[in-house]
Specification:
The structure is a single chain. The protein is of the alpha/beta class. The protein is built from 9 helices and 13 strands. A hairpin with a 4-residue loop joins strand 9 (266-270) and strand 10 (275-279).
Protein backbone atom coordinates (compact mmCIF):
# COMPACT_ATOMS: atom_id res chain seq x y z
CA UNK A 1 0.00 0.00 0.00
CA UNK A 2 1.53 3.37 -0.99
CA UNK A 3 2.09 5.87 1.79
CA UNK A 4 -0.23 8.81 2.29
CA UNK A 5 1.72 11.90 1.28
CA UNK A 6 1.38 15.15 3.21
CA UNK A 7 -0.14 17.88 1.00
CA UNK A 8 2.04 20.86 0.17
CA UNK A 9 0.77 24.35 -0.59
CA UNK A 10 1.81 27.48 -2.44
CA UNK A 11 0.03 30.61 -1.19
CA UNK A 12 0.16 33.16 -4.01
CA UNK A 13 -2.46 35.57 -2.64
CA UNK A 14 -1.60 37.96 0.17
CA UNK A 15 -4.02 38.16 3.12
CA UNK A 16 -5.44 41.50 1.92
CA UNK A 17 -6.02 40.31 -1.66
CA UNK A 18 -9.77 39.82 -1.33
CA UNK A 19 -10.53 43.19 0.25
CA UNK A 20 -8.25 45.10 -2.13
CA UNK A 21 -9.57 43.28 -5.19
CA UNK A 22 -13.16 43.89 -4.11
CA UNK A 23 -12.60 47.64 -3.79
CA UNK A 24 -10.94 47.79 -7.21
CA UNK A 25 -13.72 45.77 -8.84
CA UNK A 26 -16.49 47.86 -7.26
CA UNK A 27 -14.87 51.17 -8.20
CA UNK A 28 -14.35 49.98 -11.76
CA UNK A 29 -17.70 48.19 -12.21
CA UNK A 30 -20.04 50.55 -10.36
CA UNK A 31 -18.09 53.73 -11.06
CA UNK A 32 -18.82 53.72 -14.80
CA UNK A 33 -21.54 52.73 -17.26
CA UNK A 34 -22.84 50.13 -17.83
CA UNK A 35 -22.95 49.07 -14.18
CA UNK A 36 -21.48 45.67 -13.41
CA UNK A 37 -20.03 43.45 -10.68
CA UNK A 38 -17.64 40.52 -11.34
CA UNK A 39 -19.33 37.17 -10.60
CA UNK A 40 -16.52 36.02 -8.29
CA UNK A 41 -18.11 38.09 -5.50
CA UNK A 42 -21.16 35.82 -5.61
CA UNK A 43 -19.18 33.10 -3.85
CA UNK A 44 -18.78 34.13 -0.23
CA UNK A 45 -19.74 31.49 2.35
CA UNK A 46 -23.48 32.19 1.98
CA UNK A 47 -23.24 32.35 -1.81
CA UNK A 48 -21.35 29.06 -1.98
CA UNK A 49 -24.09 27.35 0.04
CA UNK A 50 -26.75 28.82 -2.24
CA UNK A 51 -24.89 27.72 -5.36
CA UNK A 52 -24.64 24.21 -3.98
CA UNK A 53 -28.43 24.30 -3.63
CA UNK A 54 -28.75 25.52 -7.21
CA UNK A 55 -26.78 22.56 -8.58
CA UNK A 56 -29.37 20.21 -7.07
CA UNK A 57 -32.46 22.01 -8.40
CA UNK A 58 -34.50 20.09 -11.00
CA UNK A 59 -34.30 23.01 -13.46
CA UNK A 60 -30.51 23.35 -13.25
CA UNK A 61 -29.13 20.66 -15.54
CA UNK A 62 -25.40 21.58 -16.07
CA UNK A 63 -24.05 19.94 -12.91
CA UNK A 64 -25.87 16.66 -13.53
CA UNK A 65 -25.01 16.56 -17.24
CA UNK A 66 -21.30 17.12 -16.66
CA UNK A 67 -21.38 14.52 -13.90
CA UNK A 68 -23.00 12.11 -16.37
CA UNK A 69 -20.22 12.62 -18.92
CA UNK A 70 -17.48 12.17 -16.35
CA UNK A 71 -19.10 9.03 -14.95
CA UNK A 72 -19.41 7.47 -18.41
CA UNK A 73 -16.10 8.55 -19.94
CA UNK A 74 -13.53 9.27 -17.19
CA UNK A 75 -11.43 6.25 -18.10
CA UNK A 76 -11.30 7.33 -21.76
CA UNK A 77 -10.40 10.89 -20.76
CA UNK A 78 -7.57 9.73 -18.52
CA UNK A 79 -6.18 7.38 -21.17
CA UNK A 80 -6.43 9.99 -23.94
CA UNK A 81 -4.65 12.61 -21.84
CA UNK A 82 -1.71 10.39 -20.91
CA UNK A 83 -1.26 12.72 -17.94
CA UNK A 84 0.58 11.98 -14.70
CA UNK A 85 -0.40 15.33 -13.14
CA UNK A 86 -3.96 16.62 -12.87
CA UNK A 87 -4.41 20.36 -12.28
CA UNK A 88 -7.88 21.69 -11.40
CA UNK A 89 -8.71 25.38 -11.79
CA UNK A 90 -11.29 26.76 -9.35
CA UNK A 91 -11.30 23.46 -7.52
CA UNK A 92 -13.53 24.14 -4.50
CA UNK A 93 -14.20 20.76 -2.90
CA UNK A 94 -13.20 18.89 -6.11
CA UNK A 95 -16.44 16.90 -5.92
CA UNK A 96 -16.77 16.07 -9.62
CA UNK A 97 -13.02 15.83 -10.08
CA UNK A 98 -12.95 12.79 -7.80
CA UNK A 99 -14.51 10.83 -10.65
CA UNK A 100 -11.39 11.64 -12.68
CA UNK A 101 -9.17 10.88 -9.70
CA UNK A 102 -10.82 7.47 -9.33
CA UNK A 103 -10.15 6.78 -13.01
CA UNK A 104 -6.53 7.85 -12.61
CA UNK A 105 -6.21 5.66 -9.51
CA UNK A 106 -7.43 2.66 -11.51
CA UNK A 107 -4.57 3.12 -13.98
CA UNK A 108 -1.95 3.94 -11.38
CA UNK A 109 -0.59 6.70 -13.62
CA UNK A 110 -1.35 9.74 -11.43
CA UNK A 111 1.60 11.11 -9.46
CA UNK A 112 0.33 14.58 -8.58
CA UNK A 113 -2.98 16.43 -8.11
CA UNK A 114 -2.81 20.24 -8.05
CA UNK A 115 -6.04 22.00 -7.04
CA UNK A 116 -6.11 25.79 -7.51
CA UNK A 117 -8.57 27.95 -5.57
CA UNK A 118 -8.78 31.36 -3.90
CA UNK A 119 -10.20 29.86 -0.68
CA UNK A 120 -7.32 28.57 1.42
CA UNK A 121 -9.59 26.96 4.03
CA UNK A 122 -11.58 24.91 1.53
CA UNK A 123 -8.40 24.01 -0.37
CA UNK A 124 -6.60 22.70 2.70
CA UNK A 125 -9.61 20.68 3.87
CA UNK A 126 -10.16 19.15 0.43
CA UNK A 127 -6.45 18.42 -0.03
CA UNK A 128 -6.31 16.49 3.24
CA UNK A 129 -9.28 14.34 2.21
CA UNK A 130 -7.84 13.65 -1.24
CA UNK A 131 -4.38 12.75 0.10
CA UNK A 132 -5.98 10.23 2.43
CA UNK A 133 -8.23 8.77 -0.26
CA UNK A 134 -5.48 8.43 -2.89
CA UNK A 135 -2.30 7.14 -1.19
CA UNK A 136 0.84 7.73 -3.18
CA UNK A 137 -0.53 10.83 -4.93
CA UNK A 138 1.20 14.08 -4.04
CA UNK A 139 -1.33 16.90 -3.59
CA UNK A 140 0.14 20.33 -4.40
CA UNK A 141 -2.46 22.94 -3.52
CA UNK A 142 -2.23 26.45 -4.96
CA UNK A 143 -3.98 29.29 -3.15
CA UNK A 144 -4.37 31.59 -6.11
CA UNK A 145 -6.59 33.18 -8.72
CA UNK A 146 -6.47 31.13 -11.92
CA UNK A 147 -6.84 34.30 -14.00
CA UNK A 148 -3.62 35.66 -12.47
CA UNK A 149 -1.42 32.68 -11.65
CA UNK A 150 -1.39 30.38 -14.69
CA UNK A 151 2.39 30.69 -14.88
CA UNK A 152 2.62 29.09 -11.43
CA UNK A 153 0.72 25.85 -12.10
CA UNK A 154 2.64 22.93 -10.56
CA UNK A 155 4.58 20.69 -12.92
CA UNK A 156 4.30 17.62 -10.71
CA UNK A 157 7.28 15.83 -12.27
CA UNK A 158 8.43 14.95 -15.76
CA UNK A 159 5.18 13.61 -17.25
CA UNK A 160 2.29 15.33 -18.95
CA UNK A 161 -0.22 17.58 -17.22
CA UNK A 162 -3.97 17.76 -17.78
CA UNK A 163 -5.65 20.97 -16.64
CA UNK A 164 -9.33 20.51 -15.76
CA UNK A 165 -11.55 23.59 -16.04
CA UNK A 166 -15.01 22.25 -15.37
CA UNK A 167 -18.55 23.44 -14.62
CA UNK A 168 -18.96 25.70 -17.64
CA UNK A 169 -17.08 28.44 -15.75
CA UNK A 170 -15.36 29.48 -18.99
CA UNK A 171 -18.77 30.86 -20.04
CA UNK A 172 -18.57 33.53 -17.32
CA UNK A 173 -15.79 35.24 -19.27
CA UNK A 174 -16.46 37.63 -22.15
CA UNK A 175 -15.14 36.63 -25.57
CA UNK A 176 -12.00 38.79 -25.29
CA UNK A 177 -11.37 37.53 -21.75
CA UNK A 178 -11.78 33.91 -22.88
CA UNK A 179 -9.30 34.42 -25.69
CA UNK A 180 -6.74 36.01 -23.37
CA UNK A 181 -7.23 33.33 -20.71
CA UNK A 182 -6.99 30.37 -23.11
CA UNK A 183 -3.96 31.90 -24.83
CA UNK A 184 -2.20 32.45 -21.51
CA UNK A 185 -3.03 28.90 -20.44
CA UNK A 186 -1.64 27.47 -23.68
CA UNK A 187 1.53 29.53 -23.21
CA UNK A 188 1.97 28.11 -19.69
CA UNK A 189 1.77 24.47 -20.84
CA UNK A 190 4.34 22.21 -22.44
CA UNK A 191 3.81 20.27 -25.69
CA UNK A 192 1.72 17.20 -24.89
CA UNK A 193 -0.03 18.85 -21.93
CA UNK A 194 -3.80 19.12 -22.26
CA UNK A 195 -6.91 21.00 -21.17
CA UNK A 196 -10.20 19.33 -20.24
CA UNK A 197 -12.81 22.07 -20.72
CA UNK A 198 -16.44 21.86 -19.58
CA UNK A 199 -18.92 23.93 -21.61
CA UNK A 200 -22.69 24.31 -21.54
CA UNK A 201 -24.22 23.99 -25.01
CA UNK A 202 -26.81 26.17 -26.75
CA UNK A 203 -30.38 24.94 -26.30
CA UNK A 204 -33.93 26.30 -26.20
CA UNK A 205 -34.37 29.65 -24.47
CA UNK A 206 -37.19 28.21 -22.34
CA UNK A 207 -34.89 25.62 -20.80
CA UNK A 208 -32.12 28.12 -20.26
CA UNK A 209 -34.32 30.72 -18.61
CA UNK A 210 -35.87 28.04 -16.37
CA UNK A 211 -32.39 26.90 -15.32
CA UNK A 212 -31.45 30.45 -14.23
CA UNK A 213 -34.83 31.51 -12.84
CA UNK A 214 -35.86 28.53 -10.74
CA UNK A 215 -39.31 28.23 -9.23
CA UNK A 216 -37.94 28.24 -5.67
CA UNK A 217 -36.13 31.55 -6.13
CA UNK A 218 -32.74 30.18 -5.07
CA UNK A 219 -30.91 31.70 -8.04
CA UNK A 220 -32.47 35.10 -7.36
CA UNK A 221 -31.30 34.89 -3.74
CA UNK A 222 -27.84 33.84 -4.93
CA UNK A 223 -27.46 36.83 -7.27
CA UNK A 224 -28.89 39.29 -4.75
CA UNK A 225 -26.34 38.05 -2.23
CA UNK A 226 -23.67 39.92 -4.21
CA UNK A 227 -25.13 43.17 -2.83
CA UNK A 228 -25.09 41.72 0.67
CA UNK A 229 -21.36 41.10 0.22
CA UNK A 230 -20.89 44.83 -0.52
CA UNK A 231 -22.99 45.77 2.50
CA UNK A 232 -20.92 43.56 4.78
CA UNK A 233 -17.43 44.11 3.39
CA UNK A 234 -17.60 47.76 2.29
CA UNK A 235 -20.29 49.20 4.57
CA UNK A 236 -22.67 49.77 1.65
CA UNK A 237 -26.38 50.41 2.28
CA UNK A 238 -28.03 48.47 -0.55
CA UNK A 239 -31.66 47.65 0.31
CA UNK A 240 -32.03 44.20 -1.25
CA UNK A 241 -35.82 44.52 -1.19
CA UNK A 242 -35.56 47.38 -3.69
CA UNK A 243 -33.94 45.21 -6.37
CA UNK A 244 -35.42 42.61 -8.69
CA UNK A 245 -33.51 39.71 -10.23
CA UNK A 246 -33.67 39.88 -14.04
CA UNK A 247 -32.30 36.94 -16.06
CA UNK A 248 -32.66 36.97 -19.83
CA UNK A 249 -31.38 35.11 -22.87
CA UNK A 250 -29.27 37.18 -25.26
CA UNK A 251 -29.85 35.29 -28.50
CA UNK A 252 -27.32 37.35 -30.48
CA UNK A 253 -24.45 36.65 -28.07
CA UNK A 254 -25.83 33.20 -27.14
CA UNK A 255 -25.52 33.79 -23.42
CA UNK A 256 -27.60 34.16 -20.31
CA UNK A 257 -27.34 37.64 -18.80
CA UNK A 258 -28.05 37.89 -15.06
CA UNK A 259 -28.82 41.36 -13.71
CA UNK A 260 -30.28 43.21 -10.73
CA UNK A 261 -32.77 45.98 -11.50
CA UNK A 262 -33.48 48.94 -9.22
CA UNK A 263 -37.22 49.02 -8.56
CA UNK A 264 -37.23 52.70 -7.58
CA UNK A 265 -34.86 55.70 -7.69
CA UNK A 266 -32.33 55.42 -4.87
CA UNK A 267 -28.98 56.63 -3.64
CA UNK A 268 -26.55 53.97 -2.39
CA UNK A 269 -23.39 54.84 -0.49
CA UNK A 270 -20.42 52.46 -0.50
CA UNK A 271 -17.96 53.97 2.03
CA UNK A 272 -15.36 51.23 1.66
CA UNK A 273 -15.00 52.03 -2.03
CA UNK A 274 -15.47 55.80 -1.62
CA UNK A 275 -18.43 55.66 -3.98
CA UNK A 276 -21.96 57.07 -4.10
CA UNK A 277 -24.33 55.45 -6.57
CA UNK A 278 -27.44 57.26 -7.80
CA UNK A 279 -29.75 54.73 -9.41
CA UNK A 280 -32.82 55.56 -11.45
CA UNK A 281 -35.88 53.29 -11.51
CA UNK A 282 -35.22 50.43 -13.92
CA UNK A 283 -31.44 50.86 -13.93
CA UNK A 284 -29.62 47.53 -13.95
CA UNK A 285 -26.39 46.07 -12.57
CA UNK A 286 -25.00 43.14 -14.57
CA UNK A 287 -23.70 40.50 -12.17
CA UNK A 288 -22.92 37.54 -14.41
CA UNK A 289 -23.00 36.25 -17.95
CA UNK A 290 -23.10 32.56 -18.82
CA UNK A 291 -22.19 31.97 -22.44
CA UNK A 292 -23.51 28.83 -24.14
CA UNK A 293 -21.45 27.17 -26.83
CA UNK A 294 -21.65 25.12 -29.98
CA UNK A 295 -19.05 22.36 -30.37
CA UNK A 296 -17.63 24.07 -33.48
CA UNK A 297 -17.32 27.36 -31.58
CA UNK A 298 -15.44 25.68 -28.72
CA UNK A 299 -13.03 24.10 -31.19
CA UNK A 300 -12.43 27.39 -33.01
CA UNK A 301 -11.66 29.30 -29.80
CA UNK A 302 -9.32 26.58 -28.53
CA UNK A 303 -7.50 26.32 -31.85
CA UNK A 304 -7.07 30.11 -32.00
CA UNK A 305 -5.51 29.94 -28.53
CA UNK A 306 -2.98 27.33 -29.67
CA UNK A 307 -4.62 24.00 -28.80
CA UNK A 308 -5.49 21.04 -31.00
CA UNK A 309 -8.75 19.18 -30.36
CA UNK A 310 -8.19 15.60 -29.21
CA UNK A 311 -11.75 14.51 -28.48
CA UNK A 312 -15.20 15.79 -27.46
CA UNK A 313 -17.70 14.01 -25.22
CA UNK A 314 -21.34 15.05 -24.64
CA UNK A 315 -24.11 13.70 -22.44
CA UNK A 316 -26.86 11.65 -24.05
CA UNK A 317 -29.18 14.66 -24.31
CA UNK A 318 -26.51 16.85 -25.93
CA UNK A 319 -26.80 19.51 -23.22
CA UNK A 320 -23.16 19.74 -22.11
CA UNK A 321 -19.71 19.02 -23.57
CA UNK A 322 -16.28 18.08 -22.28
CA UNK A 323 -13.50 18.87 -24.73
CA UNK A 324 -9.98 17.48 -24.41
CA UNK A 325 -7.56 19.81 -26.19
CA UNK A 326 -3.82 19.23 -26.37
CA UNK A 327 -0.94 21.64 -26.87
CA UNK A 328 0.97 20.47 -29.97
Amino acid sequence: MPEVKEPVFSVLLDPDWASGSLVTDVQRGLGSQPLSLPPKWLYDDAGSVLFDEITRLPEYYPFAREHEILSAHAAEIVTASGATTLVELGSGTSEKTRILLDAFAATGQLACFAPVDVSEGILRSSAAEISSRYPGVQVEGVVGDFTLHLAHLPRGGEGRRMVAFLGGTIGNLYREERGAFLGALADSLEPGDSLLLGTDLVKSSDRLIAAYDDSQGVTAEFVLNSLQVLNRELGADFDLDQFAYVPFWDAHMERMDLRLRAEMPQRVTIPGADLVLDLSAGEEIRVEISTKFRVSKIAAELETAGFGITRVWTDDAGDFALTLATKP
